[in-house]
């Protein structure tokens, strides 16, 4: 078989066997590889994004160059769990990172205030660039403006839609994550190009909402059980206020690092 360029869409290929098949430069989107057995494979320059890799085992591999960005709970390399080592090194490099796992209301207030300060420096760097650059993507990641729009969605989803039980907390500039399901009434405009100030205005509103929540919150209130009033996260059970606020903290922390990385490239 020498034909190339086949397209497989909306097909169930589970149980298939591929031998001596060239899949280089192939594109995989919304593909399920659960239980797959990959042997004697050349995965050079492979790019994996938004993937769930629970239970993955790699043996006999050679890794001359690999980068992993994500939430790492347990990662064993040659018999050593390196996750705690990575955590310790990240905290050494960025002492503010230890503040992103608060246990009381005072800790949450300090964490958000710390993010305010860090983001102010990041926005200052963004303002030094031409306005068009803030809509430019690096390595197909979100642009700076898209990143801020997505954080607006995160605030709306977890604080507005869950903590405050607002069934429609959205702003027209909100941007869900790429793999999110399309939902009627939820904005998802990928073509709009708002100015930085327009997005920052929405961001200020969302920050004020968080502050209002924190101002009225007690330590006991952190454990109050909540549920989503929007179509997102309805399957999640056992959520409480603290968990929702921590999701927003994590989103803010990680996406600022991504933004700093990409601004440096721009």
What is the strand and helix layout of this fold?
Layout: E1 76-77, E2 80-81, H1 83-93, H2 105-127, H3 144-163, H4 196-215, H5 241-265
Antiparallel strand pairs: 1-2
Structure at a glance:
The protein has 266 residues and is mostly helical. It has 5 helices and 2 strands.
Describe this structure as you would to a colleague:
There is one protein chain. The chain has a two-stranded antiparallel ribbon. The protein has helices at residues 83-93, 105-127, 144-163, 196-215, 241-265; strands at residues 76-77, 80-81. 37% of the residues lie in helices and 2% in strands. The longest helix has 25 residues, at 241-265. The protein has a domain at 102-265: Four Helix Bundle (Hemerythrin (Met), subunit A) (Up-down Bundle), CATH 1.20.120.450. It is globular. It has five helices and two strands, in the order ββααααα. The protein is mainly alpha-helical.
CATH class group of the domain at 102-265: Mainly Alpha
Main β-sheet description: 2 strands, antiparallel
Distance between the termini: 44 Å
**Large-scale geometry:** globular
Catalogue the unreliable spans. Answer: none
What is the arithmetic mean of pLDDT? 93
Strand order of the largest sheet: 1-2
* SSE series: EEHHHHH
CATH architecture label of the domain at 102-265:
Up-down Bundle
Estimate what percentage of residues fall within beta strands. Answer: under 5%
Secondary-structure content class = mainly alpha
Summarize the amount of helix as a percent range.
25-40%
Helices, by number, come to 5
Strand element count? 2
CATH topology of the domain at 102-265: Four Helix Bundle (Hemerythrin (Met), subunit A)
Radius of gyration: 21 Å
CATH superfamily of the domain at 102-265: dinb family like domain
Protein name: DinB family protein
Domain DinB-like: 115-258
InterPro entries: DinB-like (IPR024775), DinB/YfiT-like (IPR034660)
Organism: Nocardioides oleivorans
């Amino acid at each position: 078989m020498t034909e190339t360029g086949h397209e497989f869409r909306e097909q169930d290929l589970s149980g298939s066997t591929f031998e001596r098949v060239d899949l280089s430069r192939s594109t995989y989107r919304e593909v399920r590889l659960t239980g797959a057995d990959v042997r004697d494979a050349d995965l050079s320059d492979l790019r994996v994004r938004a993937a769930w890799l629970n239970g993955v085992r790699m043996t006999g591999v050679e890794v001359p160059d690999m980068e992993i960005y994500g939430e790492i709970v347990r990662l064993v390399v040659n018999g050593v769990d390196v996750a705690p080592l990575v955590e310790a090194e990240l905290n050494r490099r960025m002492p503010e990172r230890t503040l992103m796992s608060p246990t009381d209301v005072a800790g949450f207030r300090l964490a958000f205030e710390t993010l305010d300060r860090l983001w102010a420096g990041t926005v200052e760097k963004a303002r030094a660039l031409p306005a068009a650059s803030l809509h430019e993507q690096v390595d197909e990641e979100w642009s700076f403006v898209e990143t801020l729009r997505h954080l607006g969605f995160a605030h709306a989803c977890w604080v507005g839609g869950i903590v405050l039980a607002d069934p429609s907390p959205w702003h027209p500039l909100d941007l869900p994550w790429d793999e999110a399901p399309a939902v009627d009434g939820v904005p998802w405009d990928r073509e709009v190009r708002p100015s930085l100030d327009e997005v920052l205005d929405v961001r200020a509103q969302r920050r004020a909402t968080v502050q209002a929540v924190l101002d009225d919150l007690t330590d006991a209130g952190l454990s109050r059980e909540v549920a989503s009033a929007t179509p997102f996260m309805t399957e999640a059970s056992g959520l409480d206020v603290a968990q929702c606020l921590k999701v927003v903290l994590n989103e803010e922390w990680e996406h600022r690092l991504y933004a700093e990385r990409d601004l440096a490239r721009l």
